Amino acid sequence: MKNIAIVCGGYSGEYQISIESALTIKENMDSKKYNSYIIVIEKNKWFFKDGEGKEYLINMTNFSLDINGESIIFDGIFNSIHGTPGEDGKLLAYFDMLGIPYSSCDVDVSALTFNKYLCNTFVKSLGVNVAKSVSFLKGEKINKEEIIENLGLPLFVKPSRSGSSVGVSRVNTVDDFDGAINEAFKTDKRVLIEEFLDGREIDCGLFLENEHLIVLPLTEIISKNEFFDYEAKYNSNMVDEITPPENLPIEQETDIKAVSSMLYRKLGCKGLVRLDFIITETQLFLIEINTVPGTTANSIVPRQAKEMGISLPRLITAVVEGMFVEKN
Fold first, then answer.
1. pLDDT tens-digit map of 86-132
2. pLDDT given for residue 14 in this prediction
3. Residue range 2-103, CATH number
4. Domain ranges of the chain
5. Higher per-residue pLDDT: 225 or 129
6. Prediction pTM value
7. What is 133-195's CATH number?
8. Secondary structure in 3-state letters for the chain
9. Which CATH class is domain 111-129+197-322?
10. Is the pLDDT of residue 229 over 70?
């Protein structure tokens, strides 16, 4: 049987949800085909914890594990780290150097999609609409009045690289602007300032099964906060997630699924991916691309799969088997 490391944890505010995702993945991975080990990635140590709570450190020279004299070499990596260093490509580059296949998108795709500024620039070149925005590096002069005049209010201030809306603020008044900028710079050295899009937020999950792209039913996100922020994402009482969306015209559903499929193929994605959109009265806008979406039973993509009649074990099996498919 193949040995699979389910890596989780990471260095961001998404640490705990990553752990929960890993537990769900292990629970639903085919134990007749794979030996799975949950490996926690933290800044000061990478480790496996056995059933008695004893920790075993990973040998970082080859990402192996020694348990009571037995050396475990991993055949593949199931990446469930939301945020850095799993979703931004840093850890994946390490696995590439070791020649260990992994479940999520390649390094270049992960780095590109995690950086909202670069991702927006790329998808615009493919004809996909994104919110009008400006971007600044830390230390650059930011003309608040000019930005508000061009983008209007409300607007959003985001770190260029973050997940789960960490560091994201909605700016409703001029007085909110400076605080939002400072908050975003706590997470990243580049900020993105975007116009407000008045519309419905719709998410589309996709994955490959036997090299066939499966496009899952859509989900509408209706946050009880001002937007789908960190609290709303991880507190079910603060959001309604409706799968499939109610009263969504078939033309709009088709557009969302077509754009999602096109971007998945053009980027060369693999594994589970979720694309988030805002659909206004007249246009469709891409908000972001998530290359390591949540995989708990209550996460959006697994619930979309369930709506389609796809079980979590089938979903996890497809992703695991996909990492061993050689690309042409």
1. 999 999 999 999 999 999 999 999 999 999 999 999 999 999 999 99
2. 86
3. 3.40.50.20
4. 2-103, 111-129+197-322, 133-195
5. 129
6. 0.91
7. 3.30.1490.20
8. CEEEEEEEECCCCCHHHHHHHHHHHHHHCCCCCEEEEEEEECCCCEEEECCCCCEEEEECCCCEEEECCEEECCCEEEECCCCCCCCCCHHHHHHHHHCCCECCCCHHHHHHHHEHHHHHHHHHHCCCCECCEEEEECCCCCCHHHHHHHHCCCEEEEECECCCCCCCEEECCHHHHHHHHHHHHCCCCEEEEEECCCCEEEEEEEEEECCEEEECCCEEEEECCCCCCHHHHHCHHHEEEECCCCCCCHHHHHHHHHHHHHHHHHHCCCCCEEEEEEECCCCEEEEEEECCCCCCCCCHHHHHHHHCCCCHHHHHHHHHHHCCCCCC
9. alpha beta
10. no
Q: What is the pLDDT of residues 175-186, one digit of tens each?
A: 999 999 999 998
